[in-house]
């Protein structure tokens, strides 16, 4: 038995971290403007509070623990934006602030900071908030209704799962993002724009997103769900390109990434089809996060000269 | 540890070798009943009683019990104490008895009790074994009380079932769900490590 | 292991078990009357909470359904109390359901349960149970399960809430079929 404990690997040195973080932030900007267009000015407040809370939490932790102050690397800003993206559009701002604190303080810094966290901070924070404030976290509003107490509207996944009496948005609406859902998850078009940019800059690779989305599509085909709706609804695009590909919490090798993507796809599908919640992207990525060390262990090439076990 | 009475034995259970934060045995009841302070206190008292009693008995009979039958003997002794506690609570404190539910009889298989019996009482004199049982039991109770206080206040806005954060408080529900117990225990263990090692150790 | 060792082993275990058995028998004997008294008092208290004006309760049975007939000071039946057993999250939940003369729910009380403390255990709170007062079986669904449901589930404890709703609805259906 090999009992050595490996820390999560740093993929990149600190010099390039800033650049990569800048690319990621830049790639999220189209979706960010899209969300303001679809859900109104209130989401700007949500995003700002989320970023401020994340950065301040990081600063607070690093001061408390007398660590080097590293809030300038941009990672907390990305966590802040991504967290805001997975919250409902009319979420009370104090919940957003708690979410930012949880994501950074509990999930990232307590585990050792950038590069050491086991779970995706933004998604873990969302999972905790969903368990804690189920009423506020499942109140989705109608797109293009800018008033502060906008009309509530079921998400497409909820309509499909519970078969309630509400009109599904057309596929075109789903594609451009004119549907109810979390702040940053609705516009497939704008998210893909950002994703293509990241792929071109080689910040992310195609392995996880493609295997993830294909798995969901194939399972949908076999169970008489409409694959096009399954792909464009919920947080699948956002999750597959921007969350599942997080360096720290995804496998290193190509083979590992594909296993990771397929695993996410299967769990997402299972939760959507039979689970208690209509959406499973968040939990599937978090679940697969726990398997990353195992996947790495079996897919990393053997060291030269190391013995077979 | 050849002294007849060694008070360090008593103190180590409370902080240094705390059953929850250091030995990390018997976490199941801690996770299960620490969502309300009242239940946690009931569980704490039950554990103190069973642990002290079983340590006392096992230490007294350690000379006459052959080592190859010791485990069944320990289990019988522990089960006896647990059953006594069960009946007594049912007779005198039915409310707590009802809330503790299945976790009260499950003290029998709580590793911390068997762990102390095997690890301490079977090797040490009677007085020290009683002290160890008391120390471990009180250490267990203190920490489960702290965990339950945090969970009940944040997760329910109440302390000992009395509202202290007011009606407008929107409780942080995850704290009274099972994950909340894991979170709080993890944070407390981290805090203990931090206090003792001063954060000098690196990954 | 030689014969002597086996013999000592058996002797020690027998002795310890015998002692423990004796001790437990004594404890059981002393606590039993007390535990039963508490159970009786609690049962009585529960029944009185459902029908405060009741004077006497009589056990009765119609078509295989057991119930308590509730009598007032003039010896007239003012209602019935049924016991319902329903599968919750942590095992069976035992309920007492009081039905008045018009076959409407008078009050619901939890007799015994093993639900998660702090979550499912909230089924015992009046804010949940009082929702059932006066309801008929058509409305005894969770709001989130059916559009004509009138019962709010306890947050985070849907399984426990649904178990009670289902148990009570089934009781009302049984009463409708077999008693009236």
Explain briefly what this protein structure is.
The complex is a heterotrimer of chains A (309), B (203) and C (180). Chain B is mainly α and 203 residues long.
Describe the protein.
The complex is a heterotrimer of chains A (309), B (203) and C (180). Chain A has 309 residues and is mainly alpha-helical. Chain A has a single domain, classed as Orthogonal Bundle (Ammonium transporter fold), CATH 1.10.3430. Chain A is 61% helix and 0% strand. The N terminus of chain A is likely disordered. Chain B is mainly α and 203 residues long. Helices cover 67% and strands 2% of the residues of chain B. Chain B contains nine helices and two strands, in the order ααααααααββα. In chain B, strands 1-2 form a two-stranded antiparallel ribbon. In chain B, a hairpin with a 2-residue loop joins β1 and β2. Chain B is globular and about 60 Å long. Chain C has 180 residues and is of the alpha+beta class. Chain C folds into two domains: 47 residues; 100 residues, Enolase-like, domain 1 (2-Layer Sandwich). Chain C is 41% helix and 23% strand. A five-stranded antiparallel sheet of chain C has the order 1-2-3-4-5, sandwiched between helices. The longest helix of chain C has 48 residues. The termini of chain C are far apart.
